[in-house]
Amino acid sequence: MNLYWSGVISHFADYLPVTPKTPELTLQEGNTPLIQSQHIINHLKLKSLFFKFEGMNPTGSFKDRGMVLAVAKAVEDGKKVIMCASTGNTSASAAAYARRAGIECIVLIPQGKIALGKLSQALMHGARVIAIQGNFDDALAIVRSITSHYPVALVNSINPYRIEGQKTAAFEIVDWMKCVPDYLALPVGNAGNITAYWKGFKELFGRKETNVLPKMIGFQAQGACPLVTGIPVEKPHTVATAIRIGNPASWKGAINARDESGGSIEAVTDEEILTAQRMLAEEEGLFVEPASAASLAGVLKKNKQGFFQGKESVVCILTGHGLKDPDIAIEQCRDRIESLEPSEEIIVERLGLSGAKHD
Ligand code: F0G
Fold it and tell me: What is the DSSP string of 254-311?
C-alpha cells in the first residue's frame, strides 16, 4: 500500500483519459478501505464478505472519484462554471472540487428531499444552490438542456469522465484482494456507478473473459426501482433519498452490466434498507447513509432466499457516510437517549454499577 496517496488522477493516470494539460486536481480521493466483515458474516452463508467504504472519500461519498476527473477536464477545456442535478452527494462533491479548482458550481436539487449533511456541504463550499419543486429526474432534464446551450460543464454521471474516475474503485478492489470477488453488491440510482464498476473490471481483465469477473448485483429501493420493473417511475419514493430516482440516465449501462456479468438488479424495501443500515452500525462499527445500506440489504435478502451456497465471496459497496443524513439516523434511535439528573449517584445507579466500586 502507498504511504503517500496522491489521488485518483495521479495514481491511475495510465488508465484515465488525462493529458499533460489536465490539471493535477486532487483532494486525495480514492484508496478507500476494504473492510472484512467480522460479525454480519456470521448470519450469512458466504465464504467472505467485504465492505468497500466509499464514505471515506474527502466529501464522504464515492462521487469524488469521478468528480475530480470531470472537474479537471472541465478546467482543461476552459470552463469556468460546472453544473449538476443531484440527490445530494454529487452536489457536495461538485461544490468541493469546483472550489479546489477555483471555478463556480451550480446545483439543482429536489426541494426538501436532500439530506442535511449534503446540503450543508454544497452551501459551505459556496455553490449556487437552486431547489426545484420537482424530483431528481426533472432537475437532470433541466441541467442537460442548460449545459447543452450555455458555456457550463455538466458534471452528472452522463459526463463520461465521471464514469472513468469511478471505475478506479474496481481497480482498488482487485489490487487489495489480489483476485476478484464472486459478487459485487451495490445500490443503484442513476446507474452511473454500476456502469463504472463493470467498465473497470472489464478493462482489467479484457472483454472476452467476463466469466472470471464478479457478477454485478444491484439494488434499488422498492419505491424507486425502474430497472427492476422495466418502466420509469414517475413519483419515486424512498427513505434512501440518494437513490430516489425514477428514470436513471445510465439505464442501458446498468442493464448491460447486469446481463454481461450474469448478475441481477433487484428491489429492497425501506425497512430492509434501514435494518441493514443499523446492522452495519451496530455490528461492524460502520456508519453509512441509508442508500449505501441497500447493498447489504440486498445481500441479506438473497441469503434468506437461499441464493448463496457458502463458498462465495461478496464485496458490498458502501457508497456514502452516515453523517450525510443525521436525521434518518436519529429518527431510528432517539429513544436510546437516557435523560437523567446531573448526579453521579443517579447515573451510577442507572448503569447498574452500584456495589461494584473498587478502592
Ligand atoms: N449511493 C449514494 C450514497 C448516492 O449518493 C448515489 C447517487 C447512489 C448510491 C447511486 O449511484 O446514481 O451511480 O447509481 N447519488 C446521485 C447524487 C444521484 O446526485 O448524489 P448511481
Answer: HHHHHHHHT-EEEEE-HHHHHHHHHHIIIII---B-GGGGHHHHHHHHHHHTT---S-
**pLDDT (tens digit, 9 = 90+) per residue, 102-160?**
999 999 999 999 999 999 999 999 999 999 999 999 999 999 999 999 999 999 999 99
Of 194, 225, 186, the residue nearest 319 (C-alpha): 186
Residue type, 325: D
- Would you tell me how many other CB atoms lie within 10 Å of the CB of residue 249? 22
Q: Where are the alpha helices (DSSP H) in 32-124?
A: 63-76, 89-101, 116-124
Does ligand 1 have an atom closer than 6 angstroms to the CB of 247? no
Model confidence at 298: pLDDT above 60: yes
Question: pTM of the prediction?
Answer: 0.96
Grid cell in block for residue 334: 432517539
Tell me, what's the pLDDT at 156? 98
Q: Which residue has the cell 445500506?
A: 293
Distance 189 CA to ligand 1 centre (A): 5
Is the distance from the beta carbon of residue 242 to the nearest atom of ligand 1 less than 6 Å? Answer: yes
Is the CB of 292 within 6 Å of ligand 1? yes
Q: Which residues pair with 82 in a beta bridge?
A: 105, 153
Q: What angle do CA 202, 206, 209 make, to 5 degrees?
A: 90
Q: 299-334: per-residue pLDDT in tens?
A: 999 999 999 999 999 999 999 999 999 999 999 999
Q: Is the CB of 152 under 6 A from ligand 1?
A: no
Ligand 1 pocket mutation pick from 89, 135, 316 by most atoms within 8 angstroms of CB: 89
